[in-house]
Amino acid sequence: MLSAAVVLAAAGTQPALALSSKTSIFSPASTPSQSIFSLSMFVFAITGGIFIVVAGLIAYAAVRFRQRPDDDGSEPPQVFGSNQIELSWTIIPVLIVVVLFLATARMIFAIQDAPKPAAALEVTVIGHQFWWEFRYPALHITTANELHVPVSSVETPRPTFLKLTSADVIHSFWIPRLAGKTDLVPNRINELWMDPHTAGMYEGQCAQFCGVEHAKMLLRVYVDTPEQFAAWVKQEQQPGTQNAAVSMGRQQFESQACVNCHTIAGTSAHGQFGPDLTHLASRRSIASGAAENTTENLERWIADPDLIKPESLMPSMHLTPDQVREITAYLNTLQ
Ligand SMILES: [Cu+2]
User: Fold this and answer.
1) What pLDDT digit, counting tens, does each position of 276-303 carry?
2) 119 CA to middle of ligand 1, Å?
3) What pLDDT shows up at residue 20?
4) pLDDT by residue (tens digit) across 36-73?
5) How far is the CA of 217 from the centre of ligand 1 (A)?
6) What is the distance in A from the centroid of ligand 1 to the CA of 212?
């Protein structure tokens, strides 16, 4: 208990360090992460208790039996084969391990077997080198890198159930404040759910080394109020709005190899290799959180992705500055 209290006290006195961090495991914001947090506090308490008892006994023995000036150098009486002592140091650790095992197993099954309510949102997450694809099959939405989910309250539970898989190598999906870390494995579907209690932005990171740009494979989850979420869904379901002022940019985009790797609904671009760009302008970051979505960053990205994310799987297309400007102006309209 003491160690748990110390950790909690430390977290409480230093909110700047522990609690305000967007990736702190010490401020869970949904049921699975809350269970994981409570279990880790329980484990901390038990192991902390053991540490205090063992360290205390060592300190006591060191002081109590230290060498004294009048010691005659002879050994104290030796004890051999005490059944009582041997039994206790076998049984107590076994009991502790059993308790830790049962508590962990119970929590894993409680999370895994949680029933899926009818109101649950389903999302398929596909890991790519080095970005995230999100598909909402029932809503016919495909987007990238920024996951939008509704807030889930006790009165109106609206959890999100994710199916995780990968298009290439193993990645790992981890948003510490919302759920446990789960791998995305090619040809396999892993599952994960979360029911975020408060709206806001939560951050995560690919947690399995997946190649050179692994460190720039960030994740954002926007937990929306029901109204915000409904508005987002409505917007995503429409084809990107386009106006005549950027038709040059659209022509440029469609005449380049961009269309082989990217999809923009309502155009000739149907590529699947890179992120869907239909609503690119509504995302706040590009390239999996490697840069904010500003005109300047977008131009740099399109001119040469290596400027932002060296060795990402998008090649430099060697466009002229005018082409870059026109394409960027067009992409900027894709709300
Ligand atoms: Cu990855």
Assistant:
1) 999 999 999 999 999 999 999 999 999 9
2) 30
3) 63
4) 999 999 999 999 999 999 999 999 999 998 888 888 87
5) 6
6) 10
What number of other Cβ atoms are within 10 A of residue 171's Cβ? 30
Tell me how far the alpha carbon of residue 184 lies from the centroid of ligand 1, in angstroms: 9
The rounded Å distance from CA 259 to ligand 1 centre is 24
Q: Residue 142 Cα, ligand 1 centroid: separation in angstroms?
A: 19
Q: Domains (ranges, CATH) in the chain?
A: 2-64+81-112 (1.10.287.90), 121-237 (2.60.40.420), 244-331 (2.60.40.420)
CA of 146 to the centre of ligand 1 (A): 15
